[in-house]
């Protein structure tokens, strides 16, 4: 066999072994966290995370409000059909809620005069939208089933349904039974939310604090396959990466030039910080593995995206997730884990089912 054919064969075998190894690792981690049960089909999902324990179930409202999940799906589907960009926005709100105090809808609370600012007022949350749609869903549910369906569950279902809309089927199961938190602090959001400028060590530490491992970190980063970002968020990578007017050398040069043009960088090296760019150069509206294809080409938009390639394990997992089937399957598993962070359930101190998602009862 000619040497070039031998090389191709060796690369193919190596890639196949790597693919199988990561799949086995992913499945093993999933099994270990579900105590031997399949999260996607088990109707009773009990989570033990060391510092908390929450109990969620599939179809939690099937007796108390049987139409609840259908109502959420109908309203969200209608909105996303009219405006596909909402899928990324709902997903972002859900992420930002879960990483601060857990998935308790504390992000939905408005600030109260004379008290500390709520999470909504934190700088990373100022660009979030979709709260009015959550209000609309809550209003309908309160008329059908008063004081029954939590805002935390509405938000969790809405994020899943928004992302899944393009596929015409749910991409992952949502376990319900959360109640809503009563505390919301902007200072905690500023402290706890993952930063677009974070390195791998910081990201891994932050995710580990919520019992999310490196597979979850990489999979959940894949949410950047949809949505947009303002140039001000990543502008330093383009114009002043080390404080010397330089561009981040880890960024593909042609992509850097493209971003500079989109951000209206002029000859004086000033950029329009409010200009908007798609986070995935393969398309900002389609939820697929395009993010990982671009990432492996050094076209990750944020420093935190590029950081995944600085860790061998994360980089290998990212390479496997270039396959859409592998990515979507693990993304669903990781979303189930993320949406279970520090959940409050009936009977837990500090929890309630709000009548209005913007204010405590």
Automatic annotation (TrEMBL):
Q: What is its main location?
A: secreted
Looking up SUPFAM superfamilies in the UniProt record yields: Heme-dependent peroxidases
GO function terms (MF aspect): heme binding; lactoperoxidase activity; metal ion binding
> In this chain's numbering, which residues are marked as the site (Transition state stabilizer)?
92
Q: Where does substrate bind?
A: 194
- The EC number(s) this enzyme carries: 1.11.1.7
Q: Does the keyword DNA damage apply?
A: no
- Residue ranges of every copy of the Plant heme peroxidase family profile domain listed in the record: 55-361
- Kindly identify the residues recorded as the active site: 96 (proton acceptor)
Q: Which family does it belong to?
A: Belongs to the peroxidase family. Classical plant (class III) peroxidase subfamily.
Q: What is this protein called?
A: Peroxidase
- Protein source organism: Brassica carinata
